[in-house]
What we know:
By secondary structure, chain A is mainly beta. Chain A has a domain of 87 residues: Phosphoribosyl-AMP cyclohydrolase (Ubiquitin-like (UB roll)). The longest helix of chain A has 10 residues. The model of chain A has no long low-confidence stretch (mean pLDDT 93). Chains A and B meet through strand 1, strand 2, strand 5, strand 6 and strand 7 of A and strand 1, strand 2, strand 5, strand 6 and strand 7 of B. Strand 5 of chain A pairs antiparallel with strand 7 of chain B, so a sheet runs across the interface.
Amino acid sequence: MTEPKPSNDPVEREEGLVFMPRFDQNGFITAVAVEHKTQQVLMVAYMNQEALDKTLSTGEAWYWSRSRKSLWHKGDTSGQIQTIHEMRVDCDQDCLLLFVSVGADGGCCHTGRQSCFYRVVTTETNGTTRLIKEDH
Amino acid sequence: MTEPKPSNDPVEREEGLVFMPRFDQNGFITAVAVEHKTQQVLMVAYMNQEALDKTLSTGEAWYWSRSRKSLWHKGDTSGQIQTIHEMRVDCDQDCLLLFVSVGADGGCCHTGRQSCFYRVVTTETNGTTRLIKEDH
C-alpha cells in the first residue's frame, strides 16, 4: 500500500526516501511506460490512488481511463499486460516512469501499433506543421 | 506556427496527418523529453500553445512552468538547452515526445542529476513503499 504523505518541504520531497506521490487537482498522476529492454517510450497515461495501489500490489500496470472514467487494467482484454520491472518517480514526485515488459504481441497502442508515438511532427519550409507516420 | 484544429473525429485525430494538439482544461499538453542517443527519459513537463509554438519555431524546448506560472526556455540560465532532434505526438494527440540533445553538462534536473527520475519506488515485504536513490 502506498503511504502518501504530502509535504511542501522541497528538500524532503526531492531528496527524501518517502514515496509521496503528488496527484493533481483531479486526483491523477502522470505515468510514462517504457519497454524495459528497448527503452522505447510506449505510452503516457494516468493513475489515481487506486490504480497506483493496484500497480504496486500486483506488479502490473493499472491506469485510470479518463475517457471511460474507470479503472483500467492495461491488457486485460488484449493480453498486452504490462509487467513492471521498475518504477521510478521524478524529483517533485508528480510523475512516474514505468519500465515494463508487455504480454501478447508486445504492443501497446489501441490502434495496433507497438507504441502510441507513431507520428513525427514536422515543420515545412512555409511554417506549416504536419505529421508523418513512422514507427520508432 | 501550429494550426490546432480540434476534432472529435477519432479517425482523423488518430490516423490523420494534421497536427491538432489537444491541450487540457488548463491549456497544457504533456511533453516527455528523452535523450536522443541514449533513449534515457530525462523529464516530463508541460507546454501551453505559446511554448509549443516557440519550440517548433526555434528547435529548442520551451515549456510552461506551472510553479513559476511563466514561459520557460529550458536551459536559458543553466546552459542545459534542449535541442529538438525529433518531436512525436501520441495517438490521441494529448502528449508529445521530444528526442533532444542537451547543452552544457548534458544534465536536466534542477537537483543536479542527469535525469529527474533518480529514485526507484520499491515495495518492502511488509507492504510499505520506499524510495531508493539510483541514477538510470
